[in-house]
Design brief:
With 226 residues, the chain is α/β, with parallel strands linked by helices. It has helices spanning 3-7, 24-29, 70-81, 85-102, 129-141, 164-170, 202-213, and strands at 61-66, 111-114, 144-145, 150-152, 175-177, 191-197, 219-225. The chain is built from 7 helices and 7 strands, in the order H-H-E-H-H-E-H-E-E-H-E-E-H-E. The chain has a 5-stranded parallel sheet, with helices on both faces. Strands 4-5 form a two-stranded antiparallel sheet. The structure holds zinc ion (ZN) (2 copies). This is Phosphoribosyltransferase.
């Protein structure tokens, strides 16, 4: 226990019990994510895109750990508006532990790329929770991490306000690659796109398209909750 923990006791975001933000009990109550094919939205074993649905630039796997509910949802919402390293660390740690014990197909070596936010003065929060949690997840899996490959080059409407089809249109052409990533086509590692929440999958699909157009071979989408 550190000095700050003594002054500010840590309480579970769901039940209020002390010692952790996401207590084991509440975390165990959150259901598993439904894994689905990002092309047809039907169930998919191990989150693998169906062979029959796959197009040239389709994502290969989309994996989430939990349903977007309970203490996981509370933690993600909290991080959206106020980054707290300890909550992010507990969430990322629980996430990797769950994936290791329940998902059989994760890549051994990979390069993790967090989904970027549009950077502007209006981005008043000044942080990106997916960047910070992605760094923790990459570190725990021993993967490489780079937050400067993908750029969000266009301002978009908040996805939450739009329907499924509108979401896809809203995101067209929104991502590009930085100059850093010109060496990309020679990159042999699987790429892992990381985001906090998966809804329709438009964001992952659009980011994957950019990576594959530029020579990426295998692309995974990894999200905390779906
Ligand atoms: Zn609890
Ligand atoms: Zn499918």
């Amino acid at each position: 226990m550190g000095f700050l923990d003594i002054i500010f006791p840590v309480n579970c975001l769901e039940c209020g019990k002390e010692t952790k933000y996401l207590c084991d009990n509440c975390l165990a109550k959150v259901g598993n994510a439904r894994l689905f094919c990002l092309e047809c939205h039907k169930a998919a074993i191990d989150g693998a895109t169906h062979a029959g649905c796959k197009k040239k630039y389709s994502i290969d796997f989309a994996i989430s750990a939990w349903g977007y509910s309970g203490v996981v949802r509370k933690a993600i919402l909290k991080l959206k508006y106020n980054f707290a390293y300890k909550i992010a660390d507990e969430l990322a740690w629980g996430f990797t532990k769950k994936l290791v014990s329940e998902v059989s197909v994760l890549p051994k070596d990979a390069l993790l790329l967090p989904i970027p936010l549009y950077k502007s003065r209006e981005n008043w929060r000044g942080f990106n929770q997916s960047e910070k949690m992605g760094e923790i997840v990459a570190d725990k899996f021993g993967w490489e991490y780079n937050l400067n490959v993908l750029i969000r080059s266009k301002k978009t409407k908040p996805q939450a306000e739009l329907s499924g089809r509108q979401r896809a249109v809203n995101l067209q052409g929104v991502f590009s690659l930085s100059r850093d990533s010109l060496k990309f086509s020679s990159y042999k590692l699987p790429l892992v796109l990381f985001d906090d929440v998966l809804t329709t999958g438009s964001t992952l699909r659009e980011a994957c398209k950019v990576l594959k157009r530029n020579g990426a071979k295998t692309v995974w989408g990894l999200t905390i909750a779906a």
